[in-house]
Write a structure and sequence with these properties.
The protein is α+β, with helices and mostly antiparallel strands. It has 9 helices and 4 strands. Helix 4 packs antiparallel against helix 5 and helix 5 crosses helix 8. This is Glutathione S-transferase family protein.
């Protein structure tokens, strides 16, 4: 049994939970972080000294943190040859795009765009900075657009671990009231993700509790 600590409105928790859902693994999850707190207690800090979610334990194993690292662990232990290949070259290609999504897409969307549009009052926003962030993000999404015009998922025609850190951002990207480039292959990819039960259950969730009042 997997145990996860982390609130379901955390984008990193959503990424992990979607991966768990795709692997059809049993789990229990505890709301930690954000309005729930609990991530600054001695017990939690003993599991993750950064005080961040998610944290995962697999049965009585050690506490694991850093979302992509946890996903790799789950892929190695429970994943199929397609989800997390055993062949080193094929696995490295999946890993490249998982890291690309985390470093380039997530970091250029979550804080400079999502947080600004959701967690900052409109009067305190900086439209020029938000626009510049969208331009930067669109540059990376154009890379995804090129790949997704050639096959159904980031790496080939079936879902792999690489799609988890990338696709988990797209619900909020397409749901937000924001300017977006015309990226038909990316949108078609997103529509394919919305047909996956685990994606709907763990990613397509309201983020209203995060909005500034």
């Amino acid at each position: 049994m997997l145990t996860v600590w982390g609130r379901k409105t955390s984008s990193n928790v959503q990424s992990l939970m979607w991966g768990i859902g795709e692997l059809q693994l049993p789990f229990e999850r505890y709301d930690v972080g954000g309005k729930y707190g609990g991530n600054d207690t001695p017990d939690f800090l003993a599991m993750n000294p950064n005080g961040l979610v998610p944290v995962l334990k697999d049965d009585n194993g050690p506490a694991l943190f850093e979302t992509n690292a946890i996903l790799r662990y789950l892929g190695q232990r429970y994943g199929s040859e397609i989800f997390w290949p055993r062949d080193l070259t094929a696995r490295t290609e999946v890993d490249i795009w998982a890291e690309w999504a985390k470093i380039n897409v997530s970091l250029n969307f979550t804080a400079p765009i999502f947080w600004q549009l959701v967690r900052v009052a409109e009067k305190d926003r900086h439209p020029e900075a938000i626009h510049a962030a969208i331009v930067r993000l669109t540059g990376f999404l154009n890379i995804a657009e090129q790949r997704l015009s050639q096959h159904d998922f980031l790496v080939g025609n079936q879902l792999t671990l690489a799609d988890i850190p990338f696709g988990s951002l797209l619900y909020r990207y397409f749901d937000l009231d924001m300017e977006r480039a015309d990226l038909p292959a990316l949108y078609a990819y997103y529509q394919r993700l919305t047909q996956r039960p685990a994606y709907r259950e763990h990613v397509m969730l309201s983020y209203e509790e995060l909005r500034v009042v």
